[in-house]
Design goal:
By secondary structure, the protein is an alpha/beta fold. It has helices spanning 32-42, 76-85, 106-117, 161-173, 184-190, 210-225, and strands spanning 3-8, 26-27, 30-31, 48-53, 68-71, 93-98, 122-128, 135-137, 140-143, 151-153, 157-160, 196-199. The relative contact order is 0.18. Its EC number is 2.7.7.60.
Length: 227
């Protein structure tokens, strides 16, 4: 079964405070999206990689070989929809990955794909939540969910392409779907599909702020010391 990875790299990522879009910020000499693409390749389970870029961002991808560039939209969901529409094999498995998760281990990627090829329509990697989570309204705490049942979701998320394509079609056909899709698994849940989980990895954290970038640099420095 063909596996196609769609890498979301069209956002601006203003919280990182860089002078280029976040996906193209350099981490030890390589862009975040470049490192994400390398991890996907190293997993040994991905047949094609599509990188979603914003208008004028193509020039930042010149040093990333063997990827197909597709113009993304203004919002993440619109970008992913453009990527899905560029895949011509409805029987494929699609991986949707955030370029900002640049240190995602290849083994975790292979684990997500393996669970999907076993028959699931949707699989997401998750890690336990270690902080106490509060639900708030304004500045007032209204609830404290039971932490044991909570998980933080990472990417790549894996889907049967036909099922995810149909979920996106229904979402964009609605004048008011009643929620904002913050990830692709939420669309599948909305359409009634079962979403399964596999173990994620702490290294698959999302690089969003300058502190996250410093942490990623420290991780790479530590890894280099052990080589």
């Amino acid at each position: 079964m063909r596996v196609v990875a769609v890498v979301a790299a069209a956002g601006q990522g203003t919280r990182l405070g860089a002078d280029v879009p976040k996906a193209f910020v350099r981490l030890k000499g390589m862009s975040l999206v470049g490192r994400s693409v390398d991890s996907l390749r190293a997993s040994g389970v991905v047949d094609e990689i599509i990188v979603l870029v914003g208008e004028g961002m193509e020039r930042y991808c010149r040093d990333i070989p063997d990827v197909r560039l597709v113009r993304g939209g203004g919002e993440r969901a619109e970008s992913v929809w453009a990527g899905l529409s560029a895949i011509d094999d409805e029987d494929a498995i699609v991986l949707v990955h955030d370029a900002a998760r640049a240190l995602t281990p290849p083994g975790m990627i292979a684990r997500v794909v393996a669970a999907t090829t076993a028959g699931a329509d949707a699989v997401v990697p998750v890690v336990p939540v270690t902080d106490t989570i509060k639900e708030v309204a304004g500045t007032r705490v209204v609830a404290t969910p039971e932490r044991a049942s909570l998980r933080a979701v990472q990417t790549p998320q894996a889907f049967r392409l036909a099922a995810l394509w149909e979920a996106n079609r229904r979402y964009f056909a609605e004048d008011d779907p009643g929620f904002s899709a913050t990830d692709d698994a939420s669309l599948m849940e909305w359409c009634g599909h079962e979403v399964l989980t596999v173990a994620g990895d702490p290294l698959a954290f999302k690089i969003t702020t300058p502190i996250d970038l410093r942490l990623a640099e420290s991780v790479l420095d530590y890894a280099a010391q052990g080589e």
